[in-house]
Amino acid sequence: MKEINNFFKKLLVIFLFLTTQVESKILTIGSSNAKVTIKVFSSLTCPHCATFHNAIFDKLKMEYIDKGLVKFEHHPFPLDLAALNAEIILGCKANSLLLPENTKQIFKFLSEIYNKQTTWAVGSDIIKINKMIKKIGLDFNLSEKEMDNCLENEKLQDKILEQRIDAQKKYKIESTPTIIVNGKKYSGKVDYENFKKVIEKQF
């Protein structure tokens, strides 16, 4: 009976992988019941996006997200092919993990993409850029084959671009990053203490 149960568990994992590998879901961390939802629309090649993430996310996670007070969403808004491909590799990692409890690992990968932005998001040779992005992916246990399959997946590309178009229509995004806190645009300084004041007003 135990072997049969293990067999069906494996089948379920395979089924989940096959049904999610062409999707590009919004990356979310934090409680679905949180009083504050922060949506960040960003391009992974955008220096201002990296600055915002590096200055805000870790502190936000420790003080609010991990305590169930804030839900944080990363929304893809690629401004160029390099950003699109980085987003695809990020989605590739999300799909490889499958289970919700692995969300923290996915956001660590996102942080690393931002931390190393100046090493991979340079020049105009997309082949070299892809190699540098994949190098980061290898450090997070993605295989070369997995990443190549994701980059060649047109449905995944289309899904990300559809999300960008939908975001443009809904929020009239003019630049990245665009931060939405409980439905309202945040246009303050990239400073945690100022950002914290905006969050505290929501409680």
Task: Provide an overview of this structure.
The longest helix has 19 residues, at 2-20. The protein is of the alpha+beta class and 203 residues long. Helix 3 (81-97) crosses helix 8. The chain has 9 helices and 5 strands. It has one domain: 3-Layer(aba) Sandwich (Glutaredoxin).
Outline:
The chain is α+β, with helices and mostly antiparallel strands and 203 residues long.
Q: Total strand count, please?
A: 5
Helix content: 55-70%
What count of domains describes the coordinates?
A: 1
Examine the secondary-structure arrangement and name the CATH architecture.
Answer: 3-Layer(aba) Sandwich
Shape: globular
**In the CATH hierarchy, what is the class?**
Alpha Beta
The largest pleated sheet is described as:
5 strands, mixed
Strand percent estimate: 5-15%
Number of helical elements: 9
- Looking at this structure, what is the CATH superfamily? Glutaredoxin
Mean pLDDT: 86
Remind me, CATH topology?
A: Glutaredoxin
- What value does the Rg take, in angstroms? 18 Å
- Distance between termini? 50 Å
Class by SSE composition: alpha+beta
SSE order: HEEHEHHHHHHEEH
Low-confidence parts, pLDDT < 50 over ≥5 residues? Answer: 1-24
